[in-house]
């Protein structure tokens, strides 16, 4: 029997992340529901149902990232899919080339 597919969705206690987590669980994927506030993550995991597990994760906090990685390593030993709904803001300079190509 193949291993269960494991996904981590960041910012999954609401919005896009929550919807993605719901879809993945509905498709048989076990989803780690990444949330800065663990209680909010637990509430979201409960709403999603079996197959969703709350995980404290702030993508800007190295300690939080390391703890999340350690937990995933211990509980599953692997991750099939990472859905990162939280990206750092793109610096203004980085966005400029896109605009300049439209001229
Ligand atoms: N919704 C749209 O139609 C749409 C369209 C295009 C692009 N986007 C982009 O998609 C992303 C998500 O949008 P959304 O509408 O789902 O936003 P949202 O409803 O505001 O949800 C954002 C989620 O990210 C979490 N979060 C914030 N900072 C975090 C951090 N440092 N580490 C981990 N999680 C963090 C929030 O958790 P907390 O509860 O802890 O704050 C929340 O769960 C955004 O970057 C947005 O710009 C959205």
What is the SS-derived class? alpha/beta
Number of discrete domains:
1
CATH-assigned homologous superfamily: NAD(P)-binding Rossmann-like Domain
Bound molecules: NADP nicotinamide-adenine-dinucleotide phosphate
**Name of the level-1 CATH class:** Alpha Beta
Query: In CATH terms, what is the architecture?
Result: 3-Layer(aba) Sandwich
Q: Treating each run of at least 4 consecutive H or I residues as one helix, how many helices? A: 4
Helical content stands at 40-55%
CATH topology value: Rossmann fold
**Order of strands across the widest beta sheet?**
3-2-1-4
- On the 0 to 100 scale, the average pLDDT is 87
> Which outline best applies?
globular
Number of strands: 4
Q: Sheet with the most strands? A: 4 strands, parallel
The SSE order reads: EHEHEHEH
Could you list the spans in which at least 5 consecutive residues all have pLDDT below 50? 93-103
- N- to C-terminal distance: 55 Å
Describe this structure in words.
This protein has 103 residues and is an alpha/beta fold. It has one domain (6-84): NAD(P)-binding Rossmann-like Domain (Rossmann fold, 3-Layer(aba) Sandwich), CATH 3.40.50. Helices cover 46% and strands 19% of the residues. The protein contains four helices and four strands; from the N terminus they run βαβαβαβα. It has helices spanning 15-26, 38-48, 62-75, 92-101; strands at residues 6-10, 30-35, 52-56, 81-84. It has a four-stranded parallel β-sheet, sandwiched between helices. NADP nicotinamide-adenine-dinucleotide phosphate is lined by residues 10-11, 13-17, 35-37, 40, 57-60, 85-86. The site of NADP nicotinamide-adenine-dinucleotide phosphate has 17 residues, from helix 1.
């Amino acid at each position: 029997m193949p291993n269960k597919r494991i996904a981590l969705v960041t910012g999954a206690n609401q919005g896009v992340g929550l919807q993605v987590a719901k879809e993945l669980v509905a498709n048989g994927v076990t989803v780690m529901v990444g949330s800065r506030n663990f209680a909010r993550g637990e509430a979201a995991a409960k709403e999603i149902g079996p197959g969703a597990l709350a995980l404290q994760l702030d993508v800007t906090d190295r300690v939080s990232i390391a703890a999340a990685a350690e937990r995933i390593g211990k509980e599953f030993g692997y991750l099939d899919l990472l859905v990162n709904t939280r990206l750092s803001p793109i610096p203004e300079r980085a966005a400029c080339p896109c605009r300049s190509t439209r001229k």
